[in-house]
Every structure is written in structure tokens, then in C-alpha cells.
């Protein structure tokens, strides 16, 4: 099972949704939502019960619907309230595994982000003293690094991955790629290469 647990940025804990629970446990979505509403007080003992309002994708419109976000403890409690069928049992195991995996990934991403921050400062300092720099150089450099590391622009990362800072939305592999490219950029700037030369190398790296 894939895509059971989600994560937005580096400062929010992983979560699953009422729809995921319904789809993979063999229960109706309305039944799961009703269970959440009926046991809201118990669920909120384990944190704020998050949600998002989604607009219908149909061109005909329709009423927006609420999707609940449940953290590990909340989803574990909710699942204990479902009938213990073989499908529910299998889903419990898969969900526990995914929460563990996502928490481990979150920790690694937080560490990588902390390690990269001094390097980001080095890039900023290098651009400031770069004879070929202009007022857009740092922004353009960051955009290029993000595009090469992820295939997305900064705004696309923010929108698609629900983060305020695009660098907080990178996966572990993207972080590693970004850091590698950032090192190359710092070295080229130190050699007083022009923007076109730096861009050319990064597009081939």
C-alpha cells in the first residue's frame, strides 16, 4: 500500500485522512466521518483534529467537502473502533509501517535542512561579492537550483507540497541533489564565472 501517510513541510507531524481509512478498511467514508465526529473529544486528546476543505473537481461545481487529517495516535484510536476484519487488520499493519517510515524520513529531512543552512549562507555571501551579480542573481540562482533538483519551480513546490518555504518541501533525494548543485554554484561563483557560464554548467550537472 502506498500513499497512506502524508507530510507537509518539516514542522508538521505526518498524518493520514478519513478517506484513506475508509478506502483501505472497507468502510464507507460517511461512516468514518460520523465516527470521527462522534468521538471528536477523545481524538483531540491526542492533538488538534486537523482538516482541509476541498472544492469539487467537477466543472459542474457542488458543495466543498471536509477531509479530516489524523495523526498517528488519532488514526490508531479510530481504527480500534472499526470492526476487526482481516482487511482492517492488514490495514493497521500497513499504516503503522508507513507512519514509522514517514517519521524516519521527516527526521532525516530536518537534519539535512539544518546542515544545508550554513551552506545557503555561504551561497548568499558568494553572490553578494560576485562581480557579475545583479539584484536578481540570488533569486535566479535559487530558482535554477530548485528546478534542477526537483523539476519544479519554487512556487510549484509551495503549492503542491503545502509549504511556506520551498526548501522545506524537498524529499531526501532532492535535498541531496540540491546540496550537490549548490556546492557547484558556490565554486563557480568563486571563480568569477558569468551567470551564463554558471547556468550552463548547472544545466549539464
> H/E element string?
EHHHEEHHHHHH
Helix content: 55-70%
Sheet with most strands = 3 strands, antiparallel
**For the CA atoms, what is the radius of gyration?**
22 Å
Give the termini separation: 34 Å
Strand content: 5-15%
Decide which structural class fits the backbone. Answer: mainly alpha
Number of strands: 3
Principal-axis shape? elongated
Low-confidence stretches: none
Number of domains: 2
How many individual helices? Answer: 9
Spatially, the strands of the biggest sheet line up as 1-3-2
Mean pLDDT metric? 93
Explain this structure.
This protein has 2 domains: 16-104, no CATH class; 129-204, no CATH class. Helices cover 61% and strands 6% of the residues. The chain has helices spanning 18-25, 29-38, 40-43, 72-80, 86-128, 137-150, 154-161, 172-190, 195-204; strands at residues 16-17, 50-54, 65-70. Strands 1-3-2 form a 3-stranded antiparallel β-sheet. Helix 1 (18-25) crosses helix 2 (29-38). The protein is elongated and about 65 Å long. The chain starts with 15 loop residues before the first strand and ends with a helix.
Amino acid at each position: 500500500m502506498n500513499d497512506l501517510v502524508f507530510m507537509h513541510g518539516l514542522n508538521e507531524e505526518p498524518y493520514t485522512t478519513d478517506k484513506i481509512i475508509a478506502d483501505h478498511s472497507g468502510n464507507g467514508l460517511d461512516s468514518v466521518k460520523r465516527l470521527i465526529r462522534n468521538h471528536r473529544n477523545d481524538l483531540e486528546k491526542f492533538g488538534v483534529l486537523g482538516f482541509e476543505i476541498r472544492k469539487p473537481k467537477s466543472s459542474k461545481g457542488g458543495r466543498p467537502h471536509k477531509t479530516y487529517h489524523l495523526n498517528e495516535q488519532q488514526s490508531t484510536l479510530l481504527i480500534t473502533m472499526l470492526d476487526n476484519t482481516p482487511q482492517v487488520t492488514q490495514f493497521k499493519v500497513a499504516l503503522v509501517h508507513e507512519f514509522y517510515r514517514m517519521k524516519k524520513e521527516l527526521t532525516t529531512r530536518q537534519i539535512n535542512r539544518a546542515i544545508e543552512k550554513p551552506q545557503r549562507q555561504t551561497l548568499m555571501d558568494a553572490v553578494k561579492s560576485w562581480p557579475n551579480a545583479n539584484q536578481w542573481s540570488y533569486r535566479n540562482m535559487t530558482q535554477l537550483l530548485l528546478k534542477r533538483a526537483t523539476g519544479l519551480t519554487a512556487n510549484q513546490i509551495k503549492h503542491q507540497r503545502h509549504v511556506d518555504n520551498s526548501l522545506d518541501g524537498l524529499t531526501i533525494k532532492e535535498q541531496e541533489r540540491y546540496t550537490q548543485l549548490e556546492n557547484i554554484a558556490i565554486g563557480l561563483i568563486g571563480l568569477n564565472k558569468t551567470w551564463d557560464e554558471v547556468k550552463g554548467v548547472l544545466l549539464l550537472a
